[in-house]
């Protein structure tokens, strides 16, 4: 079979080497009853997931020289359900932090939410209306460290209050690590998040906007989460919520950030982010 022409989103050898041990271990833990090793190269499966995340195409529109959408979705869903996508993400996050001279887990996180529109096919029982932002869709909540690396993500209906997202994020942060002592939030989060953080041993600081400021003024430390949202928006599958399940939306964030971190760790890059 002729080797296909690579896509800009394809894994380089260096980036594949970072995640291949996790995928190989997963395959070893899920042997076929017949002993068959599978018809598709796992690197190509990951390439297809990254291609879709970067371009935003529908499952049926995956290029024919990548594995078929049925196979790609099988592994995407299996890795989502078993947390393999999060395992890859966590290992890369630890390595990225350590490369920057930091401990593997942070002591401070920044929380924020973003309401995004949902595609027409997204089930209505998983979406809602954010009246304040005039967005009907879902609410994506992130907890990031001071480098802008994602520690936790939660996806809810856009109608959910920021307090709901904030408490869920704090729960997921503490499930990931016991090192976080402080969380910074904006004024959209209320005392319920502060109280929930206190019960978990995390001090939640509400960073108030200076009344004298006019227009948009970045707030120190808190601004990093906005940079992360900007990075995610360069992955077109995340510009709008196309996923039937919120868990799939969360998985897309983990895959996008894993791609970003793998590139940082290896010093490799693909096509210009702001290209066509």
Structure description:
The chain has 276 residues and is of the alpha/beta class. It has a domain at 105-244: Nucleotidyltransferase, domain 5 (2-Layer Sandwich), CATH 3.30.420.10. The chain is 43% helix and 14% strand. The chain contains 8 helices and 6 strands. It has helices spanning 13-29, 42-55, 69-82, 84-99, 162-176, 191-200, 223-233, 246-266, and strands at 108-117, 128-130, 135-144, 150-157, 182-185, 203-206. A hairpin with a 5-residue loop joins strand 3 (135-144) and strand 4. The longest helix is centred in the C-terminal third of the chain and has 21 residues, at 246-266.
**What is the CATH first-level class name of the domain at 105-244?**
Alpha Beta
CATH topology grouping of the domain at 105-244: Nucleotidyltransferase, domain 5
Measured between the Cα atoms of the first and last residue, the distance is 30 Å
| Rg computed from alpha carbons, rounded to a whole number of angstroms | 19 Å
Which descriptor suits the 3D outline?
globular
**Can you name the CATH architecture of the domain at 105-244?**
2-Layer Sandwich
DSSP helix count?
8
User: How are helices and strands ordered from N to C?
Assistant: HHHHEEEEHEHEHH
Uncertain regions spanning at least 5 consecutive residues: none
């Amino acid at each position: 079979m002729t080797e296909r022409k690579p896509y800009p989103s394809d894994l380089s050898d260096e980036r594949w080497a970072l995640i291949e041990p996790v995928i190989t271990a997963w395959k070893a833990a899920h042997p076929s009853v017949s002993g068959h090793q599978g018809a598709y190269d796992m690197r190509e499966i990951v390439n297809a997931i990254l291609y879709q995340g970067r371009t935003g195409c529908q499952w049926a529109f995956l290029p024919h020289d990548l594995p078929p959408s049925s196979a790609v979705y099988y592994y995407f869903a299996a890795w989502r359900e078993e947390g393999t996508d999060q395992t890859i993400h966590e290992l890369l996050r630890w390595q990225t932090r350590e490369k920057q001279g930091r401990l593997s887990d942070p002591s401070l996180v920044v929380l924020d939410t973003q309401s995004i529109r949902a595609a027409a096919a997204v089930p209505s029982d998983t979406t809602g209306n954010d009246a304040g932002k005039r967005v009907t869709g879902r609410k994506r909540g992130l907890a990031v460290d001071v480098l802008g690396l994602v520690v936790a993500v939660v996806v809810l209906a856009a109608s959910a209050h920021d307090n709901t997202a904030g408490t869920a994020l704090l729960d997921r942060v503490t499930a990931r690590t016991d090192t976080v002592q402080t969380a910074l939030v904006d004024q959209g989060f209320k005392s319920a998040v502060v109280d929930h953080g206190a019960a978990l041993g995390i001090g939640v600081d509400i960073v108030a906007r200076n009344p004298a400021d006019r227009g948009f003024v970045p707030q120190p430390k808190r601004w990093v989460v906005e940079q992360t949202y900007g990075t995610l928006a360069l992955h077109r599958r995340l510009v709008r919520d196309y996923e039937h399940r919120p868990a799939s939306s969360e998985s897309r964030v983990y895959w996008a950030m894993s791609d970003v971190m793998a590139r940082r760790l290896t010093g490799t890059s693909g096509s210009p982010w702001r290209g066509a």
